[in-house]
Design goal:
alpha+beta; Beta-lactamase; five-stranded antiparallel beta sheet; four-stranded antiparallel beta sheet
């Protein structure tokens, strides 16, 4: 879409920054755990009734069968998830723990003679055993073990660690420790705080069901994920990677074992355009124990609905639980005036350019700080020119494409915020205003929070840009939040006659060494004044925060 070579401007004439005039305008951003029961050939089966995969009987035979089976062609726009896998995808949070799907589901014959259905994901392979009763009919393959064998590593023959280390988890069955890399952060905490939530399994068994036992010590490796030397540790069903350059809640990531095992098997069928390797919208409702899916949002939705109904004007609010992907949408699909909240996709485009090496963060530092801090409008117009290779209209087109590619298709940028210029959207779309929906905002926020749009360093830069607003803007969503709770957000403001105040953001908090997060987006216009909508944003934020804090701290204490 744009030139990947020299940027359109000459840095030698800019002194590393761009000039701007001062103006005001004011936005923000952001699935997790359940159901997969899988087992291993090692001694984890002694702890709980975890299901063994058919591959455990003869893993080499299963790999051969997978290679010999004809894999169906991928869908053009997205990959359909097998209906029984859809709850697993949703309850495990999708991309962070499973990754995007690489292939449509298909049937194979397992080594025991039974047929089964498999579906490959970037980080895992999910297997369905039709002869078994739910929930034991679904399991995660032991891709950590399988990938190590592909690499010629006999982990079973490797020397074990001498014994337990202080502050670490010790696994005598395989002889390895799992330790944190920082205070309350790292492999130990991640292993303990992720897993299957099921009343029949204790917390240790929940983690075994998802990750399995450690197969190696933590060690430095050049990972296939990004080619960077990182501290990693291999488990039966996962490879933990330590990304110290990421925000705290993203420093432990799972390796792309599904992709690597497929490549190691010589399969190339999955190598379609990246745009088509995404999951289609889910068609099967999640039908599992409600307690295992996190808090029921119905009481919160009723309270928020009553608040919105009592306010004059146009108000929309959406809330997304980033653990479970449950959502509340009150007028969430209705397009409303975006004000400067529409700068989010502009900032994504800037981060993409910096990641591609077209210019540096220092080159655009003054513009970014002015656009995302006090939310001035001239810097946003100039940045649209930059990301459009010197053409503002092309920059607008690019920002729209970023939103639409994410699925935020009911939102549109027609002109630079604060500049009522015409770029053809009145004729092509019948729209002259910049418009957003709260549902689209939370979709974008979720993709940002999960690091799905950019590499680690660039995503960290994007999140940083959402923390530099002045205090009075921060207090829109942030005033009700206790100290230590993190807020990544962007506001938007329009004066008379619109009386608009918008705010959308990601709220991240911790309890008992576990990280929780939710996205909240609010758009308010045509009330008595923008100050009223500002107060509404604070009121909504207070109610939502109290709900999530009580829900997850109470749940954690109950589980403990």
């Amino acid at each position: 879409m744009h030139n990947q070579g020299k940027p359109w401007f000459d840095r030698s004439q800019t002194g590393g920054a761009f000039g701007y005039q001062r103006s005001w305008c004011l936005l923000v951003f952001p699935l997790l755990i359940l159901l997969v029961l899988a087992g291993g050939r090692v001694a984890d089966s002694t702890a709980t009734p975890i299901i063994r995969s058919d591959q455990d009987e003869n893993p080499d035979t299963l790999s051969l069968l997978l290679l010999q089976t004809d894999e169906p062609e991928e869908a053009a726009e997205c990959i359909e998830l097998e209906p029984a896998i859809q709850p697993v995808w949703a309850q495990l949070g999708g991309v962070p723990l499973l990754g995007q799907p690489l292939l449509p589901f298909y049937d194979v014959q397992a080594a025991n003679g039974h047929g089964m259905t498999v579906q490959w994901f970037e980080r895992s392979r999910v297997e369905i055993y039709p002869e078994r009763e739910p929930p034991h009919h679904i399991g995660l393959a032991r891709l950590g073990d399988e990938r190590l064998r592909q690499l010629g590593v006999d982990w079973f023959a490797k020397p074990r660690e001498e014994g337990p280390l202080t502050g670490c988890l010790w696994f005598p069955d395989t002889g390895y420790n799992v330790c944190d890399q920082a205070d309350g952060q790292g492999f130990r905490t991640f292993w303990l705080t992720h897993g299957l939530r099921h009343p029949q399994l204790d917390s240790h068994a929940q983690s075994l069901a998802l990750f399995g036992l450690p197969l190696t010590p933590a060690r430095l490796e050049v990972t296939r994920t990004d080619g960077t030397p990182r501290l990693v540790q291999w488990f039966e069903r996962a490879r933990f990677e330590w990304h110290v350059d990421q925000p705290e809640h993203q420093r432990v990531m799972l390796g792309l074992l599904g992709k690597e095992v497929l490549e190691g098997n010589g399969s190339t069928r999955w190598m379609s355009p990246a745009s088509s390797r995404v999951a289609c919208p889910l068609t099967v409702p999640i039908a599992t124990d409600p307690a295992s899916l996190g808090p029921d949002l119905a009481p919160l939705e009723a309270e928020l609905q009553a608040m919105v109904d009592s306010w004059p004007g146009m108000h929309a609010v959406s809330v997304l639980d980033l653990q479970t992907n449950r959502t509340i949408s009150i007028n969430g699909s209705r397009p409303q005036l975006s004000a400067c909240t529409i700068k989010i996709p502009v900032m994504i485009a800037v981060a993409q350019d910096i990641e591609a090496g077209r210019y540096t963060a220092q080159d655009v530092q003054a513009l970014v700080e002015s656009m995302m801090g006090p939310s001035n409008t001239p810097p946003a117009r100039e940045l649209l020119r930059i990301v459009g290779d010197g053409d503002i209209g092309r920059g607008i087109q690019r920002a729209n494409q970023i939103m639409w590619d994410m699925g935020a298709t009911t939102s549109i940028l027609t002109h630079p915020p604060g500049f009522l210029e015409e770029y053809g959207y009145a004729a092509s779309h019948g729209v002259v205003d910049n418009l957003l929906t709260t549902d689209d905002l939370n979709l974008m926020l979720a993709r940002i929070y999960r690091g799905e749009l950019l590499g680690p360093t660039s995503n960290n830069y994007l999140l940083w840009s959402m923390t530099i607003a002045p205090d009075w803007m921060d207090q829109s969503l942030g005033l009700p939040l206790p100290e230590g709770v993190k807020l990544y957000h962007k506001v938007g403001q329009l004066y008379d006659p619109h009386h608009t105040w918008n705010d959308a953001g990601i709220v991240v908090f911790q309890h008992n060494d576990q990280t929780y997060a939710y996205a909240i987006a609010y758009l308010g216009s045509y009330g008595a004044g923008w100050q009223d909508s500002y107060a509404h944003a604070q009121a909504l934020s207070s109610v939502v925060w109290q709900f999530f804090w009580r829900a997850y701290t109470l749940e954690a204490e109950t589980v403990d």
